[in-house]
């Protein structure tokens, strides 16, 4: 396995923001206001506004509020990617046991799986994401992190796609899994762009890379990351092992396992949590501003509709008033 690590995720120490009661109350108030926001008029841009509102609610409910309320909760590492990228096989191989269904049937990951160390169960017990996953307790998960195998981001099932995006909003770290055949697709870069906008910590696994083209593919991907200002993203390259069933060889996933073990250390996990939390808080302002603009567009559109209705009804209303004043209503229909 080829590994590219630069000083980004879990390297330079980052202190979490001071969680004061006023900060927590402000985020709770924001959550209440966003939940009450509606976009009833089908005007241009409304679909994007509705989707953005849903994402923001997921971010507030599943990441920001739980994290602000309890900084010591294990870091949630979400394995995300496209159909057939090998997320479930990777999780199973990391743990040395099949805990998440993997196979050729698509979509494979129907119910998300969250694996955590036995000693972390109490800390995770109240995390809202647990209602959407099947929980696996496993000794090989490093204490201090939880590994979450999400559904495919491009699943043919709407419910799977929605669940995948919701779980990503809950993540402290996005571990994005793609393949040598699909890393150039639009989806990985759109998702990684969303992660950067949200201030999330990100790492990447490039799976099934033919050995004879490994240097070329790895170099191309690193250049694409640099072009997007993501040169600090840790990259793990997994060689193609050909047709197989079951787990990957222990040595193949050993670098990822070592990195996760390092990540789970108290100082490292704290750094990842702090970086993503600070990034998420910083991303709130432009996110909320965009929603406020969409609300204003609804207000403006409603005012235009009201003015148009009043214009159309002005003449009939005036005629009705004249008829009533003249007493002609009693003689029949208003003309």
From TrEMBL:
Gene3D superfamilies assigned to the protein according to its UniProt record, in alphabetical order: P-loop containing nucleotide triphosphate hydrolases
Q: Which GO terms describe its molecular function?
A: GTP binding; ribosomal small subunit binding; rRNA binding
Q: Name one GO cellular component term.
A: cytosol
The family database entries (Pfam families) matched by this protein are listed as: MMR_HSR1 (PF01926)
The GO annotation for biological process reads: ribosomal small subunit assembly
This protein's source sits in the domain of life called Bacteria
* InterPro entries the UniProt entry points to: GTP-bd (IPR006073), GTPase_Era-like (IPR005662), P-loop_NTPase (IPR027417)
The residues covered by the G domain are 77-180
Q: What is this protein called?
A: G domain-containing protein
State the species of origin: Cellulomonas fimi
